[in-house]
Amino acid sequence: METDDLEALSAQELHERAVHYAVRHADVGFLWELLSMIPPAQASSGNEDETANDLSRLSALLSDAMASGQGELGEALRPFYIRYLSEHPDA
To answer: What is the phi-psi region of residue 46: left when phi exceeds 0, alpha when psi lies from -120 to 50, beta otherwise?
Structure first.
């Protein structure tokens, strides 16, 4: 998919495509990078309290990773998903 086509997708659609592709291809590097990006993305969307909690609880990060295509968090992570999907055109 071209970058322009990816830009037209919602954050949720980008999340689903990127995470599905990463899981299907056992791309642990992407999933780990996603987990590391969630706290700053939450902070940028005004959820500083959630950021502090996530840094102290890995289980919260894993849960957030599965829902990180929704709402303000999904929007904050859009560039990350677009970059990943652009690098993997068969996703």
So the answer is: left
